[in-house]
Specification:
16 helices, DNA polymerase, domain 1, Nucleotidyltransferase, domain 5, alpha/beta, flat, single chain, six-stranded mixed beta sheet
């Protein structure tokens, strides 16, 4: 598939946004993608939205348009299919930044996963299916920078321009292999936030709390270093790791230096020591004297629950190998906990617990009950 593409339509005014929304609202389906700046800012934000229709590609600049509420009815409209590739991250970002809600999705990456494709990246799929080459170097670009380069613009529009073609090919394969129902149920579930994946809002140092190689005193020092780093990163508007890397904090906590000259031994550069040496030493001193932090104790699950959980995982892995798909395609992760903690006693109870994916209940329900030791299924 080779063609010369007309330039995409840049949407950065209210008038151009209204014109685009009018076009999108008249379509039975639109392709969607986003670009964010997670590698370049303290607080990530959506920096570009891409939309494609059969006749046009649009690039929407949310940095110029502070109000994108006109798009909300498009995303929420069950009569307009929104075609994404790897929708999960885009949906998280769109919910976070714009409070959009969603209905009627098609995720080409999830479709490829359900079909058992070993490589499901968009660049790989477009190359294999249509011989289209994409340059993934721009994946990590700073999408908040303006103006965007012509290469960035071309890269961004390709993320949606061919999604309709890919979607149709994958849907046909799903039908032929009788897996379309799995996909449609997964697309439906993706429209709703997964509470298990929402941020717990904890302090940044808590990411280190699970490390067995850190004593409570060392962890307390790390906590003060993280608090300092978060303040500095926010002031500079850069990701915390671009101030000081995590492994440096671990080294500082294990062998707390007393003078700036000793900081280089933990991995700090001369520039970092010059900029922040005094503040780093101050954070270490405070952490060495402060009351010890407490590790959050993970809830201890009952042994019977753990046994059921392991059996479910082993079963879905085995079936996944037979079907040549990853295990979560057989039994999605959100169902593992509830099924192992409160195992259904009947097929009807299982149907109620997994009501969002009745196809899996029909295909695997009896097997699941047997794995859980339900006598009814024996």
């Amino acid at each position: 598939m080779s063609e010369t593409l007309p330039p995409p339509i840049w949407v950065n005014t209210l008038q151009s946004l209204k014109q685009m929304v009018e076009d999108l609202a008249a379509q039975p389906r639109v392709a969607v993608d986003t670009e964010s700046n997670s590698l370049h800012a303290f607080r990530e934000q959506v920096c570009l939205l891409q939309f494609s229709t059969p006749k046009a590609d649009y690039l929407v600049d949310p940095l110029a348009l502070k109000d994108l509420s006109l798009l909300a009815p498009i995303f929420a409209n069950p009569n307009i299919e929104k075609v994404f590739h790897a929708a999960e991250y885009d949906l998280i970002c769109l919910r976070r930044d714009f409070s959009f809600t969603f209905a009627n999705l098609f995720d080409t990456m999830q479709a490829a996963r359900i079909l058992g494709y070993p490589a499901v990246g968009l660049d790989r799929l477009l190359g294999d299916k249509f011989n289209i080459k994409t340059d993934k170097r721009h994946q990590k670009a700073n999408w908040a920078a303006r103006p965007l380069t012509q290469d960035q613009i071309h890269y961004a529009r390709l993320d949606t321009h061919y999604l309709f073609n890919l979607r149709d090919v994958l849907e046909q394969e799903l039908r032929e292999r009788e897996r379309l129902a799995f996909a449609l149920e997964d697309f439906y579930r993706a429209c709703f936030p997964d509470e298990q994946k929402r941020s717990n809002g904890g302090a940044s140092w808590e990411r280190f709390a699970g490390r067995k190689d850190l004593s409570l005193r060392e962890l307390t020092i790390v906590s003060y270093l993280c608090k300092w780093r978060d303040r500095e990163a926010e002031k500079l508007n850069r990701p915390p790791y671009k101030v000081v890397m995590d492994d440096v904090f671990v080294a500082l906590a294990k062998n707390p230096p007393e003078q700036k000259v000793d900081l280089s031994g933990a991995g700090l550069s001369e520039k970092q020591i010059k900029l922040w040496g005094d503040q780093v030493l101050s954070a270490i001193r405070h952490g060495a004297q402060a009351p010890l932090v407490e590790r959050k104790q993970a809830e201890r699950k009952d042994d019977a629950v753990l046994r059921r959980l392991e059996k479910l995982k082993a079963w879905r892995k085995s079936v996944g190998l037979e079907m040549k798909v990853e295990s979560d395609i057989i039994l999605p992760k959100p169902y593992l906990g509830p099924l192992s903690e409160n195992p259904p006693k009947t097929l009807e109870e299982l149907q109620n617990m997994m009501k969002e994916t009745p196809t899996r209940v029909d295909k695997f329900g009896i097997q699941i009950l047997k794995v859980l030791g339900v006598k009814y299924a024996n």
